[in-house]
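Q: What would this complex look like in 3D?
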Amino acid sequence: MTGEATTAVIGVAGMAALIRVLTARGRTVIGPTVRGGAIVLDELTDGDELPYGRGVELEAGHYRVRPRADGAAFAHSAGPQSWKTFLHPQREREWSADRGPDGTWSVTEDDTPPPAYAFLGVRPCDLRAIAVQDRVLGGGPHSDSRYRARRERVFLVAVECTEPGATCFCTSMGTGPAVDGGYDLALTEVIDEAGHRFWARAGSDEGASVLAELPQLPADATLPAVAHEKVAAAADRMGRTMPEVDLRELMRETLDADRWNDVAARCLTCGNCTMACPTCFCTSAEDVTDLTGEHAERWRRWESCFDLEFSHLPSGPVRESGRSRYRQWATHKLGTWFDQFGSSGCVGCGRCIVWCPVGIDITEEAHALNAERAAGEGTA
Ligand code: SF4
Ligand code: SF4
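A: Here is my prediction, written as structure tokens for the whole assembly.
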């Protein structure tokens, strides 16, 4: 890194300046803001758009924005979207084709340059989710060039969690609530008798140069320790936990468990969990033509393993039952993802719990599977 200062204390004015500085550098700043009764991710042009004084009330199948007396901007956990909305969009055109006067087709790849995003407020679990998608979509010999082009230009401002949600379990998954790299800037929000401050650290040269442009509050030697303490306290207040066992082994050893029937009786196979999940990456291709038949386009859109057609082979769908589809999703996230990509496919953000219309909770299912396995072992 350059010789510029790599840590600083900024205030609410410094946060507004951060958005201005990133915008002046040609970046589209995306961050949390309140829209339609939820804290969503959207373009920010002003510091006032951050959700100061708003928190969230979360439970399985339940989400409400609530006022907070302390005026905090980042005291809310994962909302309905994740950063994949921007890095791996829900729908995009891959190419279009036009028939010329001589009847031959010319194909044009959609190579519109991606925006240079700055993501403001990336939570530690979501930083890990981005790293997971980097491996899946951006790595290997057949990487997704569109994903790579967007990802390579992103400036990441991570925010550590001091206020875990009732459905968070990043501590169980080893993904939070502290950040441990992979960012350009990291912030920890502290509100106490000394005021509303953000302890900022640069993790890249660009991060250091952005930090140098921000109005700073006087240095406070005690702030890092206060910030660490708040994040450590958050680790002990997770709303959910996973069973403390090898989850990959648990999934492998419970494939025939009765619990899969129980969850299948509740699951609507709607696929909401896969849409909300920050690591789910599956897509489908759709070809469309206009009415003249002279113009065709190929679109890529998110697809869900809960869709009956997802596993359709010439003989029909491989996973016909809800049981087989929920089991495929959960065992992939918690088990076979390790075999494929070398990590868990779940980062403990809790979105699938909150946004499941019938409140199915992946941690509750894992605990139930673990209990069923233990009972089986006891009677064997
Ligand atoms: S677990 Fe919930 S969100 Fe996922 S498919 Fe089933 S009903 Fe839908
Ligand atoms: S499986 Fe659920 S808790 Fe895990 S990363 Fe996906 S949405 Fe988050």
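A: To summarize the key features: The mean pLDDT is 95. The longest helix spans residues 322-341.
Q: Very helpful, thank you.
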